[in-house]
Design brief:
By secondary structure, this protein is mainly α. The chain has a domain of 82 residues: Arc Repressor Mutant, subunit A (Orthogonal Bundle), CATH 1.10.10. The protein has 7 helices and 2 strands.
Length: 151
């Protein structure tokens, strides 16, 4: 038993009635179109939000170095003038009052990890498990001292 297929070509409903594409317009063009006038030239140019009228934008100050274990490590390594391991750095930073340990059980592992992934490249491995400062780290010593003294 064979069924006969219709020879008529099936047409999609979209071919008969194609969809109208909507034009994407800015808010100024939309409002101008509804009022029947030309859009304002500067509104909607970058589609960025404008601040509150009459209020100037705040200027951001560069962030000062904060009190962190990595910054304390820079001060400890500067004072030591020789490569040290993470455990010794944490012990000296705690003894000098540069760092107060929190609830974590392994601050030396946290410091080791922070020195490995330091984006500013302030630390360099001198030997297995031993760390020393790079020139970038030595350049930040004064700024870190000032920031820690202010706090």
């Amino acid at each position: 038993m064979t069924t006969k297929k219709s020879s008529k070509k099936q047409t999609c409903s979209t071919e008969k009635h194609p969809a109208k594409r909507k034009k994407i317009v800015s808010l100024a063009e939309y409002e101008a179109d509804s009022k029947g006038s030309a859009p304002a030239a500067d509104v909607g140019a970058g589609l960025k939000r404008a601040g509150k009228p009459g209020k100037p934008a705040k200027e951001r100050k560069p962030a000062a170095p904060r009190k962190s274990l990595a910054n304390a490590a820079i001060l400890v390594l500067t004072k030591a003038k020789e490569p040290m391991n993470a455990k010794a750095i944490v012990e000296l930073a705690t003894a000098d009052g540069l760092y107060k340990p929190g609830d974590g059980k392994t601050p030396e592992a946290t410091l080791y990890s922070a020195m490995l992934r330091d984006k500013k490249a302030r630390f360099r491995k001198a030997d297995r498990g031993m760390w020393e400062l790079t020139e970038a780290g030595k350049a930040q010593v004064d700024a870190i001292r000032e920031a820690l003294a202010a706090k």
